[in-house]
């Protein structure tokens, strides 16, 4: 799945957590924000923050990572 090693998936299935470096990969694979991966409801943010987040998510991954 998305270049994630089977050992990592096995670790998650056993109750482990993904490495932070894999979060953008997983979010891209599923087409969601990292907030969604953490179960955070993005509608809880204000309209300005939500607009910024949507704009950032629509950028290619290489550009998003340079924004960090």
UniProtKB/TrEMBL annotation:
Signal sequence range: none
CDD domains linked to this entry: HTH_XRE
Origin superkingdom: Bacteria
GO MF annotations in UniProt: DNA binding
Listed InterPro entries: Cro/C1-type_HTH, Lambda_DNA-bd_dom_sf
Family annotation (Pfam families): HTH_3
Boundaries of every HTH cro/C1-type domain copy: 1-37
Name of the featured protein: Helix-turn-helix transcriptional regulator
Organism: Paenibacillus hemerocallicola
